[in-house]
Amino acid sequence: MTEQQPYQMVREYDQFEVRCYPEHLLAEINRESFEDAGNRGFRYLFAYISGENQVTQKISMTAPVVQDLSSELLEMTAPVLQQEFATHDDIQRTSEFRIAFVLPEGFTLQNAPSPTNPNVHLRPVPVSLVAVIRFSGGWSTRNFQQHLQMLRIALKETGLISLGTPRLARYDPPFKPWSMRHNEILLDLEEPSPSGKD
């Protein structure tokens, strides 16, 4: 069983849930297209955790794998890890995406092995409050857009405010039948004020 990234459930809604993710470390790489990030980018990251690092240390695979727009374009343990997109064409015009592996609990910038591939980078992520919608199916931009729109509508109906870039989280390998895949879209949320008022 692949280790899954830990989180604390905060609240469940009909179409989505709110989670709190602890601080964690990502190994990531930028690619030039949505599909290329999920395919070729995955191979480079897998090489890193398989020992392509300065101490040839093997690191356990976690889920999800996470995919979003490159941080350079934005001012942004079992899944693999997108700025708001209006249409499918917007994604096609974007010049860079990034894909990231969530490293297992306990890894930090201080103790994680440095990648030997200069295109692979390590990035810490602080504690975050996140809205998550789950869906099955393929990893197409169309499927991503459809469920992102559903999540944004649901957030608006509940009065929650999203921040930053939506992320696609993939929990399953490419060979798993598309109808059985576990996918999620994550959106960071604005933390409620201490008084409970906006």
Automatic annotation (TrEMBL):
InterPro entries: Reg_factor_effector_dom_sf (IPR011256), SOUL_heme-bd (IPR006917). This is Heme-binding protein. Pfam families: SOUL (PF04832). It comes from the Bacteria.
